[in-house]
Design a protein that fits this description.
Blueprint: H1 7-18, E1 27-30, E2 43-44, E3 54-55, E4 59-63, E5 70-77, E6 91-95, E7 105-110, E8 114-117, E9 120-123, E10 132-133, E11 144-146, H2 153-161, E12 166-169, E13 175-180, E14 184-185, E15 196-197, H3 200-210, E16 215-221, H4 225-238, E17 241-245, H5 256-262, E18 266-270, E19 274-275, E20 281-285, E21 288-293, H6 297-315, E22 325-329, E23 333-334, E24 341-349, E25 352-355, E26 372-376, E27 382-383, E28 388-393
Parallel strand pairs: 5-6, 13-16, 13-17, 14-15, 17-21, 19-24, 22-25
Antiparallel strand pairs: 1-12, 2-11, 3-10, 4-6, 4-7, 5-9, 8-9, 18-20, 20-21, 22-28, 23-27, 24-25, 24-26, 26-28
Helix pairs in contact: 1-6, 3-6, 4-5
Amino acid sequence: MRALIEIDQAISVVQQEMRSRASHPGAIVMLDEAVGRVLARDVISPIDSPPFDKSTRDGFALSAGGSGTEWIIRDTVAAGGAPGRALAPGECSRIMTGAPLPSGAERVASKECMSERNGRARLLKVEPLDNIVRRGANIARGQVVLHPKVLAAQDIGILAASGFAEVTVAVPLSIGIVCTGPELQPPGGPLGAGQIYDSNGPQLAAQLAAIQCPARQRGIVADEPGLLTEALASALAEHELVLVSGGVSEGDFDYVPGCLESLGATILMHGVAVKPGKPTLFARRGSSWIFGLPGNPVSTFVIFELLVKPFLYGCMGIDWEPPCFHGTLGEVVRRKDAGRVEYLPVRMQGGSILPIAFHGSAHLNALGDADGIIRIERGVHELARGTEIDVRPL
């Protein structure tokens, strides 16, 4: 393992690499398939929104002129309908919420502010607003509707309101997952002596699926150099990104770094001063990249969030940062080893941030109770109760 680099340096290495990916024209998908995908380019509105002046209330569209307190009711305009001739001074139209404003109307009076009798409407109360949304008030034709981003449900509504039935999204990298270790067994079968179930493969696949980056799980490979080199060569031939779980530390059976070098890969970093995740490796071979992730499941999960996820989004054209929220520690946080930046799982309770009992990077169940993770800087042994801190949601 090389000299450890700081986590922020590791992030910079990853950022530099993701910017080197050649641009892709993107793929066109229907709106009902677009949520969670990355918008590939600016979307320009082909229409004004709204496309006409419209009422925000059920009530009466009032013309200018006349007595100013009483109007002759000429007709009714429903949402989806079209107004008739222009209102003359002293005339009004009944109007429904969302209906287009008749020509000649200067404002809309809410129904509860008017009385109606014998074909006439009388004003009972003057409102401070005109209750009209003007044409193009939300967005004008030719303006940018959305910039490249991860599309949320509300963005789908915005696109639909602008008339789009489909949209161009970024194409994610082709991803393969390789898990190493003779002790690993696929979930669902019996365990032999000294064996454990593979959680990293399914966990990584799930983390990728959550950001709309499908992956192929390529199975479990024994810690044997020949078999591991063959498995890595096969994965690199088929994928732009290979995630390797395990085999990247300094133990007698950690062969991944040597196997990658034998395949001509350039190791860009190996060893990060972060807890959990110290053995993390990042390499490149040709137009493919490799993340070597620690075998402990919490380490794998956290490093995916810190490095792999931003890398994937960056390769799709956006600078992604998690929507962190700010809070106050409800309990003191202490640690003995302050030699590395550390990320700890926490939960929210009544507005307070509370640490979760955490027994190290193999304690995967701790993440089940976590709402997020907090960062503790190098050299900090204690965070007092009441400390304000950022939480990165999970």
